[in-house]
Amino acid sequence: MRGLTFAVAGHVDHGKTALTRALTGVDTDRLAEEKRRGLTIEPGFAPLMLEHAVVGLVDDPGHERFLPNLLAASGGVDAVLLTVAADEGPMPQTWEHLEVLTCLGVERGVVVLTKIDLLPPGELEARTAALAKAFRGSILEGAPICPVSARTGAGLTALRTVLEALADGCPARRKDRPFRLPVDRAFAVDGFGPVITGTVWDGTLRVGESLRLWPGETVARVRGLQRHGQPVETVSAGERAALNLSGVEVGTLRRGMTAAPAGSLRLTGRLDAFVTVWDRSPRPLTAGTPLRLYCGSGSVTARAFPLEGAELLPGREGYVQLRLGEAAAIRPMDRFVLRFLTPAATAGGGIALDLDPSRRRRGESCADLEELRAGGLPALARRLLGRAERPLDEKALAGRLGVSSSEVGEILSRLPGVRAVGALWIGEETLAGLREKARQAISDFHAAHPLASGMGREELRRILPDGVAELLARDGMLCLSGPTAALPGFVPAWPPQLLPVRERLAALYDGFGLAPPENGAVEARFGRDLPLARQAGRRMEEEGELIPYAPRRRIARQARARAEAILEGLFAEREQITLAQFRDAAGISRDAALLLLEYWDKAGLTRRTGNTRILLRGP
What we know:
single chain; six-stranded mixed β-sheet; 30% strand; alpha+beta; eight-stranded antiparallel β-sheet
């Protein structure tokens, strides 16, 4: 069966606790003071067994002084049972609770007209019609209105039928996301140890897994799990759960923490958000307005800085940067509520967009934030990839987005402007930046080394991450050939200042014949032009005019051809030759002859057998 959570909200003394008890048989007022005063102070919880779902009812406190307690327990709920007493009608907290839950992302619910036993005969229809009109323009416009009496039981059967349909219509939550549970209670149980409770916002948790308690760094192991008081092996998104922990002291646990796997959340001290200021807000948001931000089961102080003007007036919405008094564990697209500090009053609420924003000047374009709000997580993924200096892997992106690696793969596979680089992903903006850096570096190399066929790919790796050079080559932005990289259309050319060096080198190697000295000794003859001689020598090798045939030695192409002709003549007269025979035929020293023979051995032309060599193939 599905697990869901519904908030039971409404003005103080409008029958929330009595309704919860009538539906579930559970008295959710557990504190002595609550029983003495007949007033709910802390949220209460009770399971409602339906045909296709188990719904955790959250009995919210109705008094305005205890609104922060409602906020601590009402995040992540799927729907609302908004109670309105038939003898009073909608009251201030009726609207405030509805607005708060709307800010927290609740989109559906039912209006429960309570205490109908107090109505004079014949008034029920008129009260019901008045309620339908009152909720126009809200999330409850057109929602069922269910008249009930918790005292007599009237209407409860019909209400349960409506709740069945409401539960069936709630969209399924993704259970493959990283687990997250905002802690609304923390206590110790004799013989078991620390226990935390809350509504599971995301994912699935199993006994034996480990969790970090954010915003701290404490890591605890899940010793046991309960769902509505019953031991279970797993709990999932939408369910009320109790977690028995080991490896942590109960004194370190408190309401407002978030239990989630290490690496699945990030702490932020500043965020850009889309904020709605309520019509009933007592004042606008202005630059530096001190607030308290409620998200999950916790809250932090914050200062608001409207981005599109000097202030955000009641009844208006816009983009705001919130600078937090302490780091908070928030995921992108989380919803929150904002309240003024003094006098305490609700200002409105919003949705977190960018958790790592730059400082903005007032009036600066917020088109990028509009794109995030409209595009959600896919737009944020594209933004993160576009901002990154290097490609990112799916695990890193999953941690920034607050989703699983599999969901990241789903998002990226459908995302325009994003490219795969092996197992990594790169945004078009990042790729464009790397492409320009590579183009400039290779262009500078071509200018400094006009004879080289290209920049070494090892050197290019200091500029481009692995795989990006190959991606740019597929796009035709650079050419890869063996160990070098060049710009398209580049052809090595001999600049005028190197032509005399080339001619001199060619003459020298022609004169050396079959016994050239080491490269360094040849290049040293050029004195101050030594760097030019090295460039020219390397290019002459690439063009095949000079042949590297031994460590630190080159031979002219014509000289090598002459040596191979001598070798071929010797083998024409015999099947095997000796070093001495080749030395004498070539007219060179023993050491020079040995270098040539060893060169041919490595090339597979000849093979040494004892003190002789045999010919394997023709030169």
